[in-house]
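User: I'm writing a tutorial on reading structure tokens. Could you give me a worked example: one chain, its sequence, then its tokens, then a sentence or two explaining what the tokens reveal?
Assistant: Sure. Here is the example chain.
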Amino acid sequence: MFVFLALPALLAIPVWIVAVVVKFISVALPGRRADWSRDLLRWCAAMAAAAAVGLYVLGLGAVQLSAHESESGASSSPAPSCRDTDVDDSTLQHLVGHRTSYVPLRFDCVLDDGTTYPSSHGYAWLNGLTAAFGVTAGVLVVPVGTSFVTRRVALRAAASAAPPAAGSGLRGDLDQNCHRPPPLV
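And here are its predicted structure tokens:
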């Protein structure tokens, strides 16, 4: 199933890169809004989260594809991913199976003595980049969340410190909003 999700994730990576480049160019150009920094921080957090999800789905697809190749078809045992790595022939003679993991992403080759070796070092890169983008998204969300909470607390404090307006309540608000100013003479 994840193999089918990996293709859209792979195709989304160039779109993500173009979106990031365009955003950074728009930040460098003059004519920004006054609140651009908060929006940029929120946008960067969303892009980091999207990158983490995209890389993880791509890795899930790679693990699923390796597992599928090793469980079906002619010449599927030992796993093609294990045979294609840079190991010597004596190690390949002791190869008895494979082990998959989805958290963290791994496809390990199992030898007859119980030891394992990774079928690809690309999974380490995928895990590292996914974690880095995830942590980056989390770190960028914290200032946005704290500024939102701080602003809400300040608004509540200001509202409780101010005396209630005349005719407070829904009807009073309507009366204030619909009141016409006196004519200018």
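What the tokens reveal: The beta strands are 95-102, 105-111, 116-118. The mean pLDDT is 77.
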